[in-house]
Specification:
The complex is a heterodimer of chains A (482) and B (138). Chain A is globular, with a radius of gyration of 21 Å. Chain A has one domain: tRNA-splicing ligase RtcB (Alpha-Beta Complex). Chain A contains 15 helices and 19 strands. Chain A has 482 residues and is α+β, with helices and mostly antiparallel strands. In chain A, helix 8 runs antiparallel to helix 10. In chain A, the strands form 4 sheets. In chain A, strands 7, 8, 9, 11, 15, 16, 18 and 19 form an 8-stranded mixed β-sheet that branches. In chain A, strands 1-2-3-4-5-13-12 form a 7-stranded mixed β-sheet, with helices on both faces. With 138 residues, chain B is α+β, with helices and mostly antiparallel strands. Chain B has one domain: Archease, Possible Chaperone, Chain: A, domain 1 (3-Layer(bab) Sandwich). Chain B has 2 helices and 9 strands. Chain B has a 4-stranded antiparallel β-sheet with strand order 1-2-9-8. In chain B, strand 5 and strand 6 form a beta hairpin. In chain B, helix 1 runs parallel beside helix 2. Chain B starts with a strand and ends with a strand. The chains are: A alpha+beta (482), B alpha+beta (138). Chains A and B meet through strand 4, helix 8, helix 10 and helix 12 of A and helix 2 and strand 8 of B.
Chain lengths: 482, 138
């Protein structure tokens, strides 16, 4: 429970003043309404927002999205940008263990009526075709040489193997391969831990969902994206698997030493960091980018497997089924980006720990097809309620063009497991037209809708604060969980 | 009575572990992470694998985290679940131990523990022996 005195800026912005804790270099700003703030105060996330404000070189504020909750080091839902020229640091804890955990959204030209009678068959087929669960290994086998190639080429590697098209890369943040990946900065153990996990979903909150659009908010944007009410979409949520965990662990351990070396004073060792310009900072970013590319290759492979399953069930090519990628976004990543701070253009290291990049129309990083529209921002919710598609807005300049990343947990996994029963929950979801297939019963109760905040409330804040605008809303039909 | 208990954390899992001395604290914590994540259900492979561990760190807390992370990392990369641990040598900044692992396919793994974190880490001596609190990223 947090008793921090927050200053109200407006209905959607709250401030933790710099004076809250000696050592804070900037204030904390939380994007939330009164209702969400009550939940946010239940755990230690606000204290973590204040702790992040200690990072050397941090500019403007330690930011928190409305889905913020207690993490380790950074809060989940945290955004922090550091000024590289002024000793700005990079922190592996500001990215997390699942580097480039992210989501992609595909559309189809199927309507709800087309899948209604096939939903069970489709969900079960996807569950059997897509390796999921703890430590799951995939059918997509790669040699040691190829593994290094994945780290540099990311999703492009998958496309070269025939697992997708160039259009898919256009619709992926960083074209599915962030530049500057350095395989030499990756430990042998990370290679071992990531081996054979390409094309696997993983476990926990990772999922693959068949969804249907149940609400349109912005007709023009929907027209531009060819999206209609009742249309079927597919969402994939996964990350860099064991490979990313090991990169984060290796560098957290080595960057703990940098705290003394570079005289960095932070209240939590999980905020271990090093100047972006230092040898240690550069090595971490080189390795982190490898993990980010691994994750983009992984989501591309998962999408390929999904397309194959749909092709088999509907006996039509995926192109005929209209299974085109709308966009793929990372929500655990640190990126070097240019932003205007106090009237000057600065090169910043932007940490998004459970936050999504959200750039507006006209931004140079956008592919041609989204130049006029702005970046699609994909927000997954829990398996019983909704998910959203939004578009980045100019107002997000104040958050270094970042928005929320999901609903955000409300209850701990243990509390959720205590209060939920897997059979009852599955029956209840099925009665509402939602089929769930999971590797473990534990996952079902831990991931119960009640364990999450209502994504509708979270997205309302992001929309009303002008960070991104709502385009359409989906509801789940078939859910594959790890 | 279990020598560990789980405490609440919104996104992850916290564990509180006890030991009559430092060696048993490290052993109990090492075994607890696998007790939490997996249940033995099958005997597909009877082979046991012995792994020698030698880890050094800056201080006791760092060693505790490095120890747990090394076990998790070895478990994931070698496909093993550790069910017994013998600690030969333990100082404030170094540990030598043997971990005995069984094929992961003999187990039903419910939770993937990614890593042990420094966040709110406590390793301390008390009247009854030693106690540690650690938050695991799941």
């Amino acid at each position: 429970m947090s008793e921090i005195n927050l200053e109200k800026i407006d209905a959607f912005r709250w401030k933790i003043p710099k004076s809250y804790k000696p050592g804070m270099r900037v204030p904390g700003i939380i994007y939330a309404d009164e209702k969400l703030l009550k939940d946010i105060r239940q755990d230690k996330a606000l204290e973590q927002v204040a702790n992040v404000a200690f990072l050397p070189g941090i500019v403007r504020a330690s930011l928190a999205m409305p889905d913020i909750h207690w993490g380790y080091g950074f809060p989940i839902g945290g955004v922090a940008a550091t000024d590289i020229e002024n000793g700005g640091v990079v922190s592996p804890g500001g990215v997390g263990f699942d580097i480039n955990c992210g989501v992609r959204l595909l559309k189809t030209n199927l309507q709800y009526e087309d899948v209604r009678n096939k939903l069970k068959e489709l969900t079960y087929a996807l569950f059997s075709d897509i390796p999921s669960g703890v430590g799951s290994k995939g059918d997509i086998r790669v040699s040691a040489r190829e593994e290094k190639e994945i780290l540099v080429k990311g999703a492009q590697w998958a496309v070269e193997k025939g697992y997708g098209t160039r259009d898919d890369l256009d619709c992926t943040e960083e074209n599915g391969a962030i530049q500057g990946a350095d395989p030499a900065a990756v430990s042998e153990r990370a290679y071992e831990r990531g081996k054979a996990q390409s094309g696997t979903l993983g476990s926990g909150n990772h999922f693959l969902e068949i969804q249907v659009i149940d609400q349109l908010y912005d007709r023009d944007a929907c027209d531009e994206l060819n999206l209609n009410l009742g249309q079927v979409t597919i969402m994939i949520h996964s990350g860099s698997r064991g490979f990313g965990y090991q990169v984060c662990e290796d560098y957290t351990r080595s960057l703990v030493h940098c705290l003394a070396k570079y005289n960095i004073n932070v209240p939590d060792r999980q905020l271990a960091s090093a100047p972006v310009d230092s040898a240690e900072g550069k090595a971490y970013l080189g390795a982190m980018k490898c993990a980010a590319n691994y994750a983009w290759a992984n989501r591309q492979c998962l999408m390929h497997l999904t397309r194959l399953t749909f092709e088999r069930i509907f006996n039509l090519s995926w192109q005929k089924l209209g299974m085109f990628l709308i966009y793929d976004v990372a929500h655990n990543i640190a990126k070097i980006e240019k932003h205007i701070v106090e009237g000057k253009e600065k090169v910043l290291c932007v940490h998004r720990k459970g936050a999504t990049r959200a750039i507006p129309a006209g931004h140079p990083a956008l592919p041609v097809k989204y130049k006029q529209l702005g970046q699609p921002v994909i927000i997954p919710g829990d398996m019983g309620r909704n998910s959203y598609l939004l578009i980045g807005q100019a107002g997000a300049a104040e958050t270094f063009y970042s928005a929320c990343h999901g609903a955000g947990r409300l209850k701990s996994r243990t509390a959720s497991a205590r209060s939920e029963n897997a059979d009852t929950l599955l029956k209840e979801l099925e009665s509402r037209g939602i089929i769930v297939k999971a590797s473990g019963r534990g996952t079902i109760v831990e991931e119960a809708p009640q364990a999450y905040k209502d994504v509708n409330d979270v997205v309302d804040v992001v929309h009303n604060a002008g960070l991104s605008k709502r385009v359409c809303r989906m509801r789940p039909l078939g859910v594959i969980k790890g | 009575m279990e020598n560990y208990e789980v405490f609440e954390h919104t996104a992850d899992i916290g564990i509180r572990v006890k030991g009559k001395d430092l060696k048993s604290l490290f052993k109990n914590a090492g075994l607890a992470i696998f007790r939490i994540s997996s249940r033995r259900q099958f005997t597909k492979n009877k082979t046991h694998t012995r792994i020698n561990l030698k880890i050094s760190s800056d201080n006791l807390e760092g060693l505790f985290i490095d120890w747990l992370n090394e076990l998790l990392s070895l478990s994931a990369s070698r496909g093993l679940i550790f069910h017994n641990i013998k600690i030969d040598k333990l100082e404030d900044n170094a540990i030598e131990a043997i971990a005995l692992g069984s094929d992961i396919n003999n187990y039903k793994v419910n939770t993937e523990i990614k890593a042990a974190t420094y966040h709110q880490l406590k390793v301390a001596k008390n009247a009854a022996g030693w106690q540690a609190e650690v938050i695991l990223d799941v």
